[in-house]
Amino acid sequence: MNFKKIIASVAAAAVAVSTLAVSAFAATVTLNSEYTGGWSQSALIPKSEFEAIGGDVKVVLEVERHEPLIGDGNYLLKAMNAAESWDEITSQFTSDTAIRKGDGFIVVGKDVTSIEFVVPEATWQSFHGYINDGVEDETTSGLSFQVNDVIIKSAELSAGSPEGEFTVVDEATSADIMKNGVPAADTAADTTTEEAPAADTAATTATATGNTSAAVIVSVMAVAGAAAIAAKKRK
Predict the structure, then answer these.
(1) Mean residue pLDDT across the chain
(2) How far apart (Å, rounded) are the C-alpha atoms in residues 205 and 163?
(3) Do residues 10 and 1 make contact, with C-beta atoms less than 8 angstroms apart?
(4) Cα separation of 35 and 55, whole Å?
(5) 81 falls in which pLDDT band (50, 70, 90)?
(6) Rounded to whole angstroms, how far apart are CA atoms 228 and 1?
């Protein structure tokens, strides 16, 4: 086999490995294409999707605000154990970016199209389906949401780790965020910051995801192939 064929084979193998890694650590679940109604229950994210990923799971919801026919919208969603009750479980999650009220409803501010949070393993492990004649209906087990003036279109799940606490706001602040968006941070006070040293992105990617990037795989295997060819020619 010539050198070009070796490189082509190595590259194909690396792409296959990369594809398998992505499929093992992420999934997208379609939820609702239409508005389900005021204070209604959304479709659920099955518990099986959390089990497939394992550990703490990061969830990114694709959301769309549904404008009411009259008056101001009240754009909210609240996480709940689909078959358990309508009690909020949002407070069990962590998020560096999302904003919620004290009652567990996440605020969907102006121009917001996605909501991100991390569901602890202990929380999704507690999900269960309705029990009929002593048998659990697993199709009803999972994470769903009480929604108002919001459509949850899909959810992307991937391996996650605990983040910070939600930003919690009162009713007045919630209403302002819905109408005007989150106030811009004041960055004018400190405009001179020391530039951090460049990170080793290849090493960081491998450590954070548990998967070596396709580019690194191709590089290492290609060098090994070239060395093997050179050694063979010297014999």
Answers:
(1) 81
(2) 18
(3) no
(4) 31
(5) very high
(6) 12
Q: How far is CA 132 from the centre of its chain?
A: 32
Kindly write down the DSSP assignment for every residue of 25-46, as one continuous string.
HEEEEE--SS---TTEEPP-EE
Q: Three-state SS for 135?
A: strand
Contact by Cβ (8 Å): 71, 149:
no
Measured distance CA(59)–CA(121) in Å, rounded: 12
SS3 82: coil
> Which SS3 state, helix, strand or coil, does residue 88 take?
coil
What CA–CA distance (Å, rounded) separates 186 from 194? 18
Q: Which of 174, 184, 169, 182 is nearest to 75 (CA)?
A: 174
3-state secondary structure of 155: strand
User: Can you give the pLDDT at residue 198?
Assistant: 59
Judged by DSSP in three states, 217 sits in: helix
List pLDDT tens digits, range 129-170.
999 999 999 999 999 999 999 999 999 999 999 999 999 999
Residue 50, token pair as written in the block: 């959390």
The CA-CA-CA angle for residues 12, 205, 220, to 5°, reads: 40
